[in-house]
Amino acid sequence: MAITEAQRNQVVQLVQDGAGCREAAGQAGISTGSVRKIIKDAGIEPGWTRPGAASKKAADPSAIRAKLSADLLADAALYRRLARKHASEGDVTRAKGMAICLGIVTDKLIALERPDPADDPAVRGLLLLLDEMDRRET
Known about the structure:
Layout: H1 5-16, H2 21-28, H3 32-42, H4 61-88, H5 92-113, H6 121-137
Helix pairs in contact: 1-2, 1-3, 2-3, 2-4, 4-5
């Protein structure tokens, strides 16, 4: 399906307002790759970079948790919206799938909110999983 001019404008506005790539993609209903292309074509310098393109400098663990939480909240909103949409259309199988995704995201948010040290194996595992998901997405 082709990306509409309205979707392009929505993405540009969202990114200019500080939205992340995933958040803009979820709200516009397009892929993150399409968001990056739209932003590049518009000549906008977003406040985020592609996965793996970040500085080699060590990041602050609390900043990483905050970013992950924000991304997970955006994903949760998308899954909730899709679950409601599929349920209202009578597609119970897809609605259940989106509900399961929402549950997984919620579980990950709870894990990130635990007051354990940044070197916790669960947090490292989550970071590795999210990095792998980002690599597969691009």
